[in-house]
Design brief:
single chain, mainly alpha, 0% strand
Length: 353
């Protein structure tokens, strides 16, 4: 039912209409009953088939299809065989909606929820398993559609786009478990052209970072090859700069990295959401250039951001680099401080973050 909403609707329409046709002589006068029956089943079926969509969108689509189906059923049941044709006619709007592409983005919405669920350790295993299932199923359809991997998705529900997003979610879940080589392998097997345009740069930046964490500096650079800043969406350009700078540091070019991120906050006009990455890369570059005090100051700015700062420091520990020792030391110190602040005094380890 997840992959074939049109087929499911046709089977329910034809199967139900056929059964009613066989039983027609035993049924009472039709009236509005066939249209009401069809409309009610349309509502229930649409709510089930579109359960990955946002609740309000699902209710609007399912309710609209049921109302249209009722009127279509009333019209179709006005002649001979009112039970069969009235019921079957109620399904016509639903079938046309699915043929026209309504609900084709439902897997993308489901993946969005799965990606959020990955942040909750208790939900991560289930989210990962479902994302892997979607990745496998859409991968088969995507390769059948585009064996060479040279075409771009035509819409958000295109199997190529959904496969790319599923590979991203799988990689994200694996990276949270510290399985960076597997995370990189998940997203790395996706042809770049299959990645949706608005997300392509961010996906390639994620791939680059996971490869850095796996110790593959060359692969991290390759993930960014061919990404021109002028071709990237404006909102994604700061992330692309941060990714390039992180690779430059690990490639032995700290001065070039520092030129990208600047020596102080705001020197390169970076937005707040990417500033922590600039600070960490700045620390690596300064450490490589012999300015340990400046590197510690940059990392101190990261740590001063509270929980978000601690999470950022932990995120960068596996990536290595000239300031890796400082980052690990500071991340450990911040974690210890967080554990101490979280103690309730009721017992050892209780209340830890």
């Amino acid at each position: 039912m997840r992959q074939r909403p049109t087929l499911v609707s046709v089977l329910l329409a034809v199967g139900g209409a056929s059964a009613l046709l066989l039983l027609e002589e035993r049924l009472p006068p039709a009236g509005l009953a066939p249209a009401l029956l069809g409309g009610a089943l349309v509502l229930v079926t649409m709510l089930s088939l579109l359960r990955e969509l946002r609740r309000r969108d699902r209710l609007a689509i399912a309710g609209g299809a049921a109302v249209l189906g009722f009127f279509a059923g009333v019209s179709a049941g006005a002649g001979a065989h009112p039970w069969a044709l009235g019921y079957g006619g109620a399904w016509l709007p639903t079938i046309l909606l699915f043929v026209g592409g309504v609900g084709r983005e439902r897997l993308a919405f489901e993946l969005e929820r799965l990606e959020t669920a990955c942040d909750v350790p208790a939900k991560r295993a289930g989210a990962l398993a479902r994302a892997q299932q979607i990745r496998a199923e859409t991968g088969l359809r995507a390769r059948a559609l585009d064996p060479e991997g040279t075409g771009a998705p035509e819409h958000a529900g295109d199997p190529r786009a959904v496969h790319a997003y599923a590979a991203q979610v799988v990689g994200y879940a694996l990276s949270l478990e510290g399985r960076f080589a597997e995370a990189a392998a998940s997203l790395g097997e996706v042809p770049a052209r299959w990645m949706p345009g608005p997300m392509r740069v961010l996906m390639r930046c994620n791939l680059s970072f996971w490869r850095l964490c796996a110790g593959d500096v060359t692969g991290a650079q390759e993930a960014l090859d061919g990404l021109g800043e002028s071709d990237a969406p404006e909102a994604a350009r700061p992330a692309l700069r941060a990714a390039r700078a992180a690779v430059l540091v690990r490639s032995g070019e700290p001065a070039a990295a520092l030129d990208i991120v600047g020596k102080v906050d705001g020197e390169r006009g970076e937005p707040g959401w990417v500033r922590q990455r600039y600070r960490v890369t700045r620390a690596h570059a300064l450490a490589a250039l012999g300015d340990e005090e400046g590197a510690r100051a940059a990392l101190g700015q990261v740590a001063d951001e509270g929980d978000a700062g601690r999470e950022e420091l932990r995120r960068w520990v596996p990536a290595g680099g000239p300031a890796a020792g400082m980052i690990a030391e500071m991340a450990g110190r911040e974690n210890a401080a967080a554990r101490g602040a979280g103690r309730t005094g009721a017992g050892e380890g209780e209340g830890e973050v």
